Amino acid sequence: MNGGGPKKLVDLLEDPLPGVGTYEDFNTIDWVREKSKDRDRHREITNKSRQSTVALLRSLSDAFSGWLLMLLVGLMAGALAGGIDIAAHWLTDLKGGVCLIGFWFNHEHCCWTSNETTFQERDRCPQWQSWAELIVGNSEVGAFAYIVNYLMYIFWALLFAFLAVILVRAFAPYACGSGIPEIKTILSGFIIRGYLGKWTLITKTITLVLAVSSGLSLGKEGPLVHVACCCANILCHLFTKYRKNEAKRREVLSAAAAVGVSVAFGAPIGGVLFSLEEVSYYFPLKTLWRSFFAALVAAFTLRSINPFGNSRLVLFYVEFHAPWHLIELAPFILLGIFGGLWGALFIRANIAWCRRRKTTRLGHYPVIEVLVVAALTALIAYPNSYTRMSGSELISELFNDCSLLDSSQLCGYKQPVNVSETGVGNSLADRPAGEGLYTALWQLALALIFKMLITVITFGMKVPSGLFIPSMAVGAIAGRLLGVGMEQLAYYNHDWLIFRGWCSPGADCITPGLYAMVGAAACLGGVTRMTVSLVVIMFELTGGLEYIVPLMAATMTSKWVADAFGREGIYEAHIRLNGYPFLEAKEEFEHSSLAVDVMRPRRGDPALAVLTQDSMTVEEVETVVDSTHYSGFPVVVSQESQRLVGFVLRRDLLISIDNARKRQDGVVSTSQVVFTEHAPTQPPEAPPPLRLRGIMDLSPFTVTDHTPMDITVDIFRKLGLRQCLVTHNGRLLGIITKKDILKHMAQIANRDPDSILFN
Amino acid sequence: MNGGGPKKLVDLLEDPLPGVGTYEDFNTIDWVREKSKDRDRHREITNKSRQSTVALLRSLSDAFSGWLLMLLVGLMAGALAGGIDIAAHWLTDLKGGVCLIGFWFNHEHCCWTSNETTFQERDRCPQWQSWAELIVGNSEVGAFAYIVNYLMYIFWALLFAFLAVILVRAFAPYACGSGIPEIKTILSGFIIRGYLGKWTLITKTITLVLAVSSGLSLGKEGPLVHVACCCANILCHLFTKYRKNEAKRREVLSAAAAVGVSVAFGAPIGGVLFSLEEVSYYFPLKTLWRSFFAALVAAFTLRSINPFGNSRLVLFYVEFHAPWHLIELAPFILLGIFGGLWGALFIRANIAWCRRRKTTRLGHYPVIEVLVVAALTALIAYPNSYTRMSGSELISELFNDCSLLDSSQLCGYKQPVNVSETGVGNSLADRPAGEGLYTALWQLALALIFKMLITVITFGMKVPSGLFIPSMAVGAIAGRLLGVGMEQLAYYNHDWLIFRGWCSPGADCITPGLYAMVGAAACLGGVTRMTVSLVVIMFELTGGLEYIVPLMAATMTSKWVADAFGREGIYEAHIRLNGYPFLEAKEEFEHSSLAVDVMRPRRGDPALAVLTQDSMTVEEVETVVDSTHYSGFPVVVSQESQRLVGFVLRRDLLISIDNARKRQDGVVSTSQVVFTEHAPTQPPEAPPPLRLRGIMDLSPFTVTDHTPMDITVDIFRKLGLRQCLVTHNGRLLGIITKKDILKHMAQIANRDPDSILFN
């Protein structure tokens, strides 16, 4: 008989202790356990719903809470994205001048509100004054005014950059960077507390505006994904279902990633595919549908805010009319090769630079670094109109097709001398390049070199920084250059064999804007290794299936070329740089090792630390726990048989023992720890046993020692395991954790296995 | 010492016997083993590629063979789809008349080739003669001619239907139906030999044309998926990589399903999502990209064949101009409810009818059944012009927006009496319905009832039959009716509160064509339970993000309403009807049972049939195998310890023993069967042992008896297992197969567990 009386044995299964079943920071969750917990919860609600109307209503509200949450995420992310767009637009214009009728108007808006609508050029109105006009006076135009504007531009750029980096440092260090590598890791099951919290959200939103406005070579697309995920994470707290379950919350975060891309580009379908292809780890089909819903809500919220003032959903709206010709695939593939090479080069250079920042004294002065880069960027960017304008404006202009009335330098073609000469006088026909275009080409070439260099050192600084826009800008410039080159080649040599038949004089055969778009896709593809989602995003921008083939040819080439230099995209490279425990789902495990080669303990190591099911005292258990740093312990029948019973987590064990010692009468160091269903008979004078079956995982995953590692890795990935026990002929032999696998993979790839920092 | 001398022990690991590692018909493959086999193969090629240039080239060609295969699948499926379209178009027109300048021209083509292009109506030209004109003479127009045409229509319909059913019966019984339920099952790992073979392909292609042309209420979209999968399966035989590996081949088949939908609707992105959402089981991201490529190739192949003669990629090209208003969401949701109700009703009715066909004498006369239904269809369909035309023509017409010059009855509006009365005289403004429209509405209402009834008995007959077009037709009719109703309501009551502000007189505020499209999506969604892919397909048809919200509202409502009556879509229902072993990936396992409740042997049953690793003779093994019908046997250390060593498949065991008895000297019934690495020492006079470690799976999957079934089901689904062993404290306790799980699920749902036919 064990001590009866008033003592009540705490049944842990029924009413878990606070803390049991939760995770520590920088740890990996157990997907199987979380999903099982959710199914239990769901089952309970379903069973109860048959009993009363209130419970039925609760069950219904539970079923619809997912949709409600998606709606809220869409609305909030869409609204925030709209606000960011408007604020960034205003601050960017503020670098150049100010609106006299109200400093809070941006350039375009200022001229809208102006009553004088007679002038042709809408971007010139008396209400908008450049800093030189304001400071020196209206009449002064010349070198001095230029210098004043130049200095004011640098001043504002430095101010914005300084504010951005200071705010990030002061309030939320997690707000820096693009956030996508961390979100990928979080979605794969890692826990980084505060990474998606409210301070990060507020700081990231504000500093993103500042960073974009400072003119640094960065975009807002990646950070928007982070912002959307923060929104989702915060809104999850409103619903118990998502607050308490790490796996369910990650479903919502997957959808939020789709929302982020949807508002960044106005491409809801592309956003969903981006989340599916690039970011998500666990993506059940239910999530697909909900992501799509959230992405649509966000896109339409953004459109009703109308930050671009053109009622367009998409960031770069383009409409091409000319079809492309099969021969053009050659230059498109060339652009793909360029994109792939640039992607591979950029990743290497950027990672090398970031590693230098991590390991040398450079990393100690983030504020100075940002200020120096911002000053450098502003200094070099101002004189060249293509680098002075913001990245998205630049891309917009490069994507655009020239119409006859276009005043842009890029459309500085010579007017046909005689309209009748070219037949019907097709206004869009190919024309010879004029002076303006040649100047534009030179400036673009310089801008290309500048963008390529500055982006390498910008991405990874301690300000919010996205990579989509700079990558696309590089590609768009290269594409436009090639496009104009092709156009001129065709114009002057339309009798060449390759142009004959489709490029007759006076016809519009080559669209340089399309080349810019293909180039942008190729470069973005080279850097991020996105494929389908990239093509679909681009498809949503143009709205025509016609241009899918060029886009696909370029992104496919780009991916192949880039993969030849290294299979990692920029996000995976940053994940590895930071040592996050991320098990890439896309790459196959190629090596032929077996589970026995990877498991701990290795040959010669001391035996695995195990607990027995009913023959250890509290003290003995505590000794085992204290003398090791493992996060969990297998429970076996006895030390001799090594037959596996279950698995218990260190954290749960410590909390339970601690709680029992405090709350449960009679539990002392000599009390027996019992994992079996029925406590063994003990002498009557013995202290009551501590029953811990409730915290033990009765269904630990096991593989045999002969299991090939490729299968084991597959199991880890697909089921989202944290650890797996290894048996041989039914006896427990060792344990494999996610970290062991990652270390093993690092070893195979000749990398430092200790670069994997977390479990 | 075991018998040495010239006897060579066959090392099965190095050079597997023919047959070992293959599967029998109507069995489930082991995904883990197949994928592992492929990784081994890949590893070998990669290792060899470092040795010589030839091997390097082989490795490269191996890497690109997947893309080449995709290209071929896309080309072949696109070409076949084009051929089917052209042939079906011609045969459908042949029911009405014949072209005098060449009987192989269809109606439209016949009038194109005609020189007289003066007449306004392109579909009336002297070269095309109806059967009455041909038989009775040109002058005769009246009741007699009508009857002649009517009879000829019925004659051709019966002839085509008869040919279709006879050909299916004679050459390929698998060619009947839509094929999607079977393809879903095959993709989940089931083997149905010949289902995707060349005879099925040829027969299905021909009979599909005949069935569609016969005027039966069926479409060609589902069967096109089957055709594309047949193409893929046949082309797989060209590449060893895909021929020999069931898992790799299923990757290609997943892509082929995308190709099928891509050519059916001209919607490549929608096709890929359809494959992902609806059909596929195992869909790695690599497949996503390749599917997309194949779908695009197929779509462009189809476009270059240009079967519709309009250079359009999509089947129903629509271009709406009027925006929709928020209030219109109410009728759209109404359409969703209609779609959901119809979907649920259709599934019940169709399944009940198909079950009756399976169980009663009705099933013995498939030819008569088809003929009766075809006669009935033709008899009723001919008098009503909306049922006389083919399903896709009908949908096209219903989707279309009316322009002023439209001669269609559906556009029989009254012309505005005085153009100046309505202001600018907006040609597209809402108008009052005229006589023609009222007639059309009556005919449509009758067509709706007819289509709803006839589709229930048509789907499932022994001819190729798709469900997409009939479902969409039902929805489009309902939508158009509601749309015209709304339009007239708004026209006559534009001062009502709900119409005020956006429906002023003379404005074009309601687009009945849009209602038809939304209705079509709702009904298709209710029947198939597609969600994202359906919206994306519709998005690709219209090309505008504008209409996604109405489509989504309708499909979402439709799915919810239909799910309330039963969670199965039509394909899942047919899978269950046929007893295929399909483990639905979308539905959660809700019950709280444990592995021990599902495993065999049950409590009270005789113990599990096991083999021991080194203490059984060939005869004893054969006795165990013969006395049971299990498809595999666990191997344990000894009967007493029940510690698990591995798992061996019945088929492999039989082939190996048979082979050893024939080929290997000295192996007799008393030879010991040895599964260990080193044969135990035996008395010198003993016959040589039969070593079978090579055929044993050294890494069988195990779960503990306490594992909740929801986790077990998850493991089965995600890893694609065929069986899993159950242990308790390290001892083998039982086995769970896929069939056991499906039976258990059937039991929970109060269905007959013996309806699961295959393993």
Automatic annotation (TrEMBL), chains A, B:
InterPro entries: CBS_dom (IPR000644), CBS_dom_sf (IPR046342), Cl-channel_core (IPR014743), ClC (IPR001807)
Recorded GO MF terms: antiporter activity; ATP binding; voltage-gated chloride channel activity
Topology with respect to the bilayer: Multi-pass membrane protein
Keywords carried by this UniProt record: Antiport, ATP-binding, CBS domain, Chloride, Endosome, Ion transport, Membrane, Nucleotide-binding, Repeat, Transmembrane, Transmembrane helix, Transport
GO cellular component entries: early endosome; endosome membrane; Golgi apparatus; plasma membrane; synaptic vesicle
Top-level division of the source organism's lineage: Eukaryota
Span of domain CBS: 599-663, 696-753
Subcellular locations according to the entry: Endosome membrane; Membrane
SMART domains: CBS (SM00116)
CDD domains documented for this protein: CBS_pair_voltage-gated_CLC_euk_bac (cd04591), ClC_3_like (cd03684)
Transmembrane segments: 67-91, 153-175, 196-218, 224-240, 252-276, 326-351, 363-382, 440-461, 467-486
Main location: membrane
Protein family according to the UniProt entry: Belongs to the chloride channel (TC 2.A.49) family.
Name of the featured protein: Chloride channel protein
Species per Swiss-Prot/TrEMBL record: Nothobranchius furzeri
The organism's taxonomic lineage, starting at the top: Eukaryota, Metazoa, Chordata, Craniata, Vertebrata
Gene this protein is translated from: CLCN5
